[in-house]
Design brief:
The complex is a heterodimer of chains A (116) and B (115). With 116 residues, chain A is mainly β. Chain A contains no helices and eleven strands. Chain B is 0% helix and 51% strand. Chain B contains no helices and twelve strands. In chain B, the strands form three sheets. In chain B, strands 2, 5, 6, 10, 11 and 12 form a six-stranded mixed β-sheet that branches. In chain B, strands 3-9-8-7 form a four-stranded antiparallel β-sheet, with no helix packed on it. Chain B has a two-stranded antiparallel ribbon with strand order 1-4. In chain B, β7 and β8 form a beta hairpin. Chain B is globular. Classes of the chains: A mainly beta (116), B mainly beta (115). At the A-B interface, β4, β5, β9 and β10 of A face β6, β10 and β11 of B.
Chain lengths: 116, 115
């Protein structure tokens, strides 16, 4: 049973560029959440997708956008990259039952984004 | 505002010694509580979770945590640490109400294990 997978593993971009990160959820899961983990910090919630809609969003600017596909996989897009966007981006998947936090989230290994 | 505090940035224990990692939360009601572990180059792995019921929760890899409402704490414990436990540990809270799926994490505690 494949867990959560993310691609690419590492990525280097320059300021002002755009980036797309990809996530495939654990088999049977229908909900994908994205988190940003800066160096030395805990993960911070970006947004969550369910039924191809953004269900909830954290305190991140509109430069951060996402998409969920019919097969439940998801993309995170970041436009106009800033140096401060350098971080590990984690994807987590879950199976929505109550739609709340009781849906245990399983995390992928992350994508390390470096902005120069 | 909801928050999670992990007071210890870095802890070093000897192999075979007991371990306690502290976690305090600030929340308007009883939240859902989680402990995750992150090894270098790895994603987060769920160790255990508390939703309701017995306040002492057993997890994987021999870990347990105790929810203390009066102290707003959810400390993680292990009676005997193994070298493979060296990693970073994150405490997280989640909201009970509405369709809120996001987790709020602490800044983490890095555990080093001495041989």
């Amino acid at each position: 049973d494949a867990g959560v997978t993310q691609s690419p593993t590492h990525l280097i971009k320059t300021r002002g560029q755009q980036v797309t990160l990809r996530c495939s959820p654990k088999s049977g899961h229908d909900t994908v959440s994205w988190y940003q983990q800066a160096l030395g910090q805990g993960p911070q919630f970006i947004f969550q997708y369910y039924e191809e809609e953004e269900r909830q969003r954290g305190n991140f600017p509109d430069r951060f956008s996402g998409h969920q596909f019919p097969n439940y996989s998801s993309e995170l897009n970041v436009n106009a990259l800033l140096l401060g966007d350098s971080a590990l981006y984690l994807c987590a998947s879950s199976l929505s039952s109550s739609g709340g936090t009781t849906d245990t989230q399983y995390f992928g290994p992350g994508t390390r984004l470096t902005v120069l | 505002a909801q928050s999670v505090t992990q007071p210890d940035i870095h802890i070093t224990v000897s192999e075979g010694a007991s371990l306690e990692l502290r976690c305090n939360y600030s929340y308007g009601a009883t939240p859902y509580l989680f402990w995750y572990v992150q090894s270098p180059g790895q994603g987060l792995q769920l160790l255990l979770k508390y939703f309701s019921g017995d306040t002492l929760v057993q997890g994987i890899k021999g870990f347990e945590a105790e929810f203390k409402r009066s102290q707003s704490s959810f400390n993680l414990r292990k009676p005997s640490v193994h070298w493979s436990d060296a990693a970073e540990y994150f405490c997280a809270v989640g909201a009970r109400s509405g369709s809120q799926g996001n987790l709020i994490f602490g800044k983490g505690t890095k555990l080093s294990v001495k041989p």
